[in-house]
Design brief:
This protein has 347 residues and is α+β, with helices and mostly antiparallel strands. The chain is built from 11 helices and 8 strands.
Length: 347
């Protein structure tokens, strides 16, 4: 494939040059780029030099291979490439400079790259991303890619060496496929027809963890985890909120103060068996209170899930507090619990 420049109004895709090395190096200091791509982390100036001097020409030298810099009005905004995997099959990959995310530029760039690939004789384009990377999926979904499966433990996180490999989404499209979405948007800001059954709370929470990349441990039970403090604080906060709803704000404050005082007595002895028993009892008594008070908890959980999955930033990024708690993005929609209680009765 010969070197090609693609244009769309103020957007240009052209081959990265040595002049782009400082911008590439600066952009790749963003941990999200290393987390969601195969780029090394930490990313050094030497990595940027090697990318322009070696990876770019080597990729262009392959049939159906290409690497472009994404430029808006001449300013470097990201990278997009076509990486040959087999005869007439290439994989599309991309990343954006943080300052240019959420402006629709990547969607336009992918459209240019896809048009060019199929016009050049590519039969199929592959795509992959870590499960929960909704921002990456939405870009290709708009152009007709189909999500074709999940591979367990197929994706590395370069910012967390030694961590278990994460599950990956894999998809693609054929040159003959329509260039429009192949199905409904199933992401956090859509209708969510794929929402798990709210009568199975663990499935709801698992979807939340997958969407926001919250750890899911499958190697055995152990409560001594890095986010233990945050988890305990969340439970204390929700219990205090319940106390406040029933007994008043002053009572809520007492509970929160009591939890804060309890932390001073942490002996750092973690009893996983006792913790598991207490977690089960918390769920049991919560459902018991719902039954005794007539709260349709299944329907309330469905409404809370709808709200929880609206926390992503406008470009699909996850916002986190320093301790790892997922924060609300600008599109967050609070749950309408009052409506649920008006419309539903317990069954």
């Amino acid at each position: 494939m010969r070197l090609v420049v693609l244009r769309d109004e103020d957007l240009e895709l052209s081959t990265p040059t040595t002049e782009d090395v400082p911008a590439i190096f600066a952009a790749c200091q963003d941990p999200d780029i290393a987390r969601y791509t195969t780029l090394p982390f930490p990313y050094t100036a030497e990595h940027a030099d090697d990318f322009v001097a070696e990876a770019v020409p080597q990729t262009w030298a392959q049939e159906h291979g290409a690497i472009w810099a994404i430029r808006r009005d001449g300013e470097f905004a990201g990278v997009i490439g076509l990486h040959p995997r087999a005869p007439r099959i290439s994989e599309i990959g991309y990343w954006m400079v943080p300052a240019f995310r959420g402006q629709g530029l990547l969607t336009r760039a992918v459209g240019l790259a896809v048009d060019h690939a199929f016009a050049a004789g590519v039969h199929r384009l592959d795509w992959r991303a870590t499960v929960g990377n909704w921002a990456s999926w939405k870009v290709v979904w708009r152009h007709g890619f189909r999500l074709e499966g999940v591979k367990r433990g197929a994706m590395a996180d370069n910012t967390r060496p030694g961590e278990p490999l994460r599950d990956g989404w894999f998809g693609g499209m054929l040159a003959s496929d329509p260039r429009t979405p192949a199905g409904d948007w199933l992401g956090p800001d859509g209708a969510l027809p794929s929402r798990p059954d709210p009568a199975r709370p663990m499935d709801l929470v698992r979807q939340f963890h997958q969407t926001y990349e919250v750890p899911i441990v499958t190697t055995g039970a152990d409560v001594d985890v890095p986010n233990l403090g945050m988890r305990m604080a969340l439970i204390a906060e929700e219990f205090a909120e319940l106390v406040g709803a029933v007994f008043g704000d002053a009572a809520e404050g007492v509970v929160l103060q009591g939890y804060g005082d309890a932390l001073a007595f942490d002996d750092e002895k973690r009893d996983t068996v006792a913790a598991a028993d207490a977690l089960a009892d918390l769920v049991y008594v919560a459902y018991g209170m719902a039954l005794e008070t007539g709260v349709p908890l299944v329907d309330v959980l469905a409404e809370v899930q709808r709200s929880n999955l609206s926390k992503l930033d406008t470009d699909g990024r996850v916002l986190r507090r320093a301790d790892g708690k997922v924060l609300k993005g600008p599109g967050f929609r609070a749950p309408d619990i009052a409506r649920v209680l008006r419309e539903r009765t317990i069954t």
